[in-house]
Amino acid sequence: MITAISRLFEDLAHKALVPGAQLSLYHGGELHELATGVEHAGTGVPVTARSRFAYGSVSKIFTAALVLQLVEDGDIDLDAPVTTYLPGLRRSEDHPVHAMTTRQLLSHTAGLVSDHDEGTVRSASLRRQAASLLEQGPVSAPGTAFSYSNSAYSLVAYLVETVTGQDWWQTLESHLALPTGLDPSFVYDARDPGAAPAAVSGHAVDLVSRSVDAVAPYVEPALTPAGGLAGSATDLVNFGRAFMSPEDAALDTDIADPQILHEMGRSVPAADPFGLADGWGAGWALHLAGDRLWYGHDGTLDGSTCNLRVDPEGGTALALTTNGTSGLQLWEELVAGLRDLGLDVGHYRQSAPRSPGAVTREDITGRYVNGDLKVDVTRTGPDEFWFGLANGFSGPLTITSGLNFSVTVGDLGGMSFNGRFLPDPTAPGAIASMQYNGRTLRRTPFPVHSRV
Fold this sequence. Notes:
Layout: H1 2-16, E1 20-27, E2 30-37, E3 53-54, H2 60-72, H3 102-106, H4 126-133, H5 150-164, H6 168-180, E4 185-186, E5 202-206, E6 211-215, H7 224-227, E7 229-231, H8 233-241, H9 258-261, E8 279-280, E9 285-289, E10 292-301, E11 304-311, E12 316-322, H10 327-340, E13 366-370, E14 373-381, E15 384-389, E16 395-401, E17 404-409, E18 415-423, E19 431-436, E20 439-443
Antiparallel strand pairs: 1-2, 1-12, 3-7, 4-7, 5-6, 8-9, 9-10, 10-11, 11-12, 13-14, 13-20, 14-15, 15-16, 16-17, 17-18, 18-19, 19-20
Helix pairs in contact: 1-10, 2-5, 2-6, 4-5
């Protein structure tokens, strides 16, 4: 099988125009490491199994693991209010922070905005970022809904700093990396702010024009715990093997007691990550493949992509890292190809776009907001719409059924992503919010101009 997988990997990497990629697979008790291409399109330095790629949001599982170590030590209770450990962040008695728990922060159910930038994320002070974050209005009441939040992991990292008495960067090295033998690096290191990112270059890939432009990896300092680690695909697989039986373990020592560590993968009832995963735990996204539950996480950062999947019961783990934006397409096609080869990997399956359906409720056009994330939905025809993001991640929006929709992004080879509009329970016929890519965005009165 590994020969066929190697051929599939090489073919798909070439098709996606990614300059370089790694695929690491642990299956049947054996580790297989594959690498292709170059670290930077202009240098010719080959990718090896040890090259460090930006993990993007996959970094969150390391921050979550730090928390579970502190849970094992009795320093944190996942279900206690975070203000138990962060007395300096207390607000008025009716502020949502009093109802937020660490489990909710880790599972994106605390009701915090996805991203918040008023200058505080450019500082390495997680305390300042936390204080500024809590001034923002909530997306939902804590524990009632899922909305993916980078900001929540910045707050979690501040919790780690407060409990351990040392900064998050140092804690990750001393508590997790060094004892276990993992070898991640930081895209931004607060202890050496001027250091160059310890990761290969990213690349913006346009599959239509076949252009490939280098992009330097960058993460806002205060969001490093949410998306600022870098490393190899094999390090990710070795991390994932910590969630398997002892005979599959690869690390120098356990991360934490297995029963406690698996809290990262225990489904949280309020976590319904529509369009992103089948469920969520205190760190892991949850994906179904047949009767198997896989742990996983996906990430992107400035021209890099990263995907990790772990079958804790079946003893399989695989990770893909790429240094091109089209790595998103590579991953989708890799999962499909592996399924054809007999390896059914847990992955949220986006439904294919269907013929436009009639919008049965009030006009869906308008601006939808979650912190700094803003989406404009404009009408381009009687039943035609455009989904617009300021970062260019835009495309035609197709109503698929009821209030569900898909967005097709031409720059990513025509890939489609799902979402849904949510009605206002207090105003029949009105749309209150949108769920897209795991985020909940509230509809605002801000007008948008149609393209009709």
